[in-house]
Amino acid sequence: MNADAQKRAAAARAVEFVRTGMRLGLGTGSTAKHFVELVGERVRAGLKVVAVPTSQATRADAERCGIPLTTLDATPELDLTVDGADEIAPDLSLIKGGGGALLREKIVAAASARMIVIADRSKWVPQLGRFPLPIEVAPFGLGATRRAIEKAVAAIQQSGPLTLRQGQDGHVFVTDGGHWIIDAALGKIDDPAAMAHALSDIPGVMGHGLFIGLAQTAILAGADGVSIVERP
């Protein structure tokens, strides 16, 4: 299987956890898109669910697939969120946010009784940090926030460049919430929990891509098939 086929295989296995009557969180990204499409197929076959999308892109996909949607204001507690990841460590801590939806993804995951992360096996890593860590920031006071991030990271470990993300049009990438993203090239994250707490304490940081203690299950697809990993 190529990478896209592996993503779809992982998504197909995750759909088996969906039951009628569930309140679902729908992740964002290429792997989560497969899950949305497969849930849509089951909805058209009679499955009864409601779902909260984590981005405008996912909302559009879900609407196209005929999945009934709700909001966290109307449905503040969800049964299951299924989402992708940029990196997955053995304890199922994650780096997310390559697609720019990290803040809404984390809000939805935290509102869910269970989170399943789906990915091709290349996302499984012994230690987080090879993928640059997305940090969602308020545009106001960017210089001060960047300096605070540099200071916080340096207190924990050595850091690489902090890069303000740009969109395909060459302009600053803007999240659905109107924020910007700084990608921190760390190489490795020696203490993800300490890093998460330090970044969360910075006023200009709206969210970061470290998802710790949120995912209970990982579904990984590779050339040799699909495997399920439960959080230790």
Describe the structure.
With 232 residues, the protein is an alpha/beta fold. The chain contains 6 helices and 13 strands. Strand 12 and strand 13 form a beta hairpin. Helix 1 crosses helix 2 and helix 2 runs parallel beside helix 3. The longest helix is centred in the first third of the chain and has 15 residues. The mean pLDDT is 97.
Overall geometry comes to: globular
Largest sheet: 6 strands, mixed
| Residue share in β-strands | 15-25%
Structural class: alpha/beta
Provide the succession of SSEs. Answer: HEHEHEEEHEEHEEHEEEE
Mean pLDDT: 97
Number of β-strand runs? 13
Q: Considering DSSP H and I runs of 4 or more, what fraction of the residues is helical?
A: 25-40%
Radius of gyration over C-alpha positions, nearest whole angstrom: 17 Å
Number of contiguous helices: 6
- Strands in their spatial order, largest beta sheet: 2-1-3-6-12-13
Give the low-confidence spans.
none
Cα(first) to Cα(last) distance is: 29 Å
Question: Any key phrases for this structure?
Answer:
globular, 23% strand, four-stranded antiparallel sheet, alpha/beta, six-stranded mixed sheet
Summary, kept brief:
The protein is an alpha/beta fold and 232 residues long.
Fold blueprint:
Elements: H1 3-15, E1 23-26, H2 30-44, E2 50-53, H3 56-65, E3 80-83, E4 87-88, E5 94-95, H4 102-110, E6 115-120, E7 133-137, H5 142-154, E8 162-164, E9 180-184, H6 192-200, E10 205-208, E11 210-211, E12 217-222, E13 225-230
Parallel strand pairs: 1-2, 1-3, 3-6, 6-12
Antiparallel strand pairs: 4-5, 5-11, 7-9, 7-10, 8-9, 12-13
